[in-house]
Amino acid sequence: MYDRKNRKLWDAIRNASATRLTLARVDDGPRMQTMQAKGLAGEVLDQVERFQNYGFSSFPLAGEAVGLPVGGDRGHVVIVAIDDRGSRKAGLQPGEVTMYQANGDHVTLGKDNKITISTKEFLPEAAEKMSFKTKDFTIEADSVTIKATNIIFEGGMSGQGDLELSGNLKMTGNLSMTGNVNTTGNITATGPVHGSNI
C-alpha cells in the first residue's frame, strides 16, 4: 500500500513538472506554431503548441526546449522556452542584449549605448516617411544610388568625384564639387555653384 501511494504521488509530481525536450519538427503554418518534440525515455510529443512573446516570432531550425504539461496532463504540453547552442550569439558583456538567427545575422544592443546590426543585405522600408536625426552621419560604400523625383539639400554640399542625377537638385546653400555634375533636370541653388564641369 505504501509503495502504491508513493508511486501515484511520484507519477503526479512527474506529470505536473516541467520537462526538457529536443525539437524534431516545426510547423509555422498555423496561427499558433506547433512542434514535434522528443522527451525523456523516448517520449514523442506531437502538435505541441509553442507560446511566444507578443511581437516576436521565430522559426527555430533545431534546439532544446522547456515544456509544461497543462493541468498536469502529459497529453497537453506547451513549449514556453527554446534555445539553440549551435546558433546563439555568445560572448555578450553584462547588460547586453542581442537578437540573432541561424545564419549569423544579429542585432546587438551593446554597452556604451551602441547598437550593432550585422547582415548581408539591409532593407528598411517606410510607406510614408523616414527620418534620421543625429550630429554626424557617415556612409562608407563602394557606390551609393539615390532614386528620387527631387533631391533637396538644406545647407552646403561638397564632394570629391562626380555627381550624376536623373532628377532635379535644389540647394539652399553652396554646391562645391571637384568632379563633374551631370543631371537631366535642373540645378537650383541660393548660393554659388562650383565644379570642374557643370
Give the topology:
Blueprint: H1 2-16, E1 19-27, E2 34-38, E3 44-50, E4 64-69, E5 77-83, E6 97-100, E7 106-110, E8 114-118, E9 150-153, E10 157-159, E11 163-165, E12 168-171, E13 175-177, E14 181-183, E15 187-189, E16 193-194
Parallel strand pairs: 3-5, 9-12, 10-13, 11-14, 12-15, 13-16
Antiparallel strand pairs: 1-2, 1-4, 2-3, 4-5, 6-7, 7-8
Features:
single chain, 198 residues, OB fold (Dihydrolipoamide Acetyltransferase, E2P), 3 domains, five-stranded mixed barrel, 16 strands
Describe, in plain words, how this protein is organized in 3D.
The protein has 1 helix and 16 strands. The protein is mostly beta strands. The chain folds into 3 domains: 2-83, Beta Barrel (OB fold (Dihydrolipoamide Acetyltransferase, E2P)); 87-123, no CATH class; 124-198, no CATH class. The strands form 5 sheets. Strands 1-2-3-5-4 form a 5-stranded mixed β-barrel. A 3-stranded antiparallel β-sheet has the order 6-7-8, with no helix packed on it. A hairpin with a 3-residue loop joins strand 7 and strand 8.
Mean pLDDT: 85
SSE string, helices as H and strands as E? HEEEEEEEEEEEEEEEE
Largest sheet: 5 strands, mixed, barrel
User: What would CATH call the class of the largest domain?
Assistant: Mainly Beta
Radius of gyration over C-alpha positions, nearest whole angstrom: 29 Å
Shape: elongated
Summary of the model, kept short:
The chain contains 1 helix and 16 strands. With 198 residues, the protein is mainly beta.
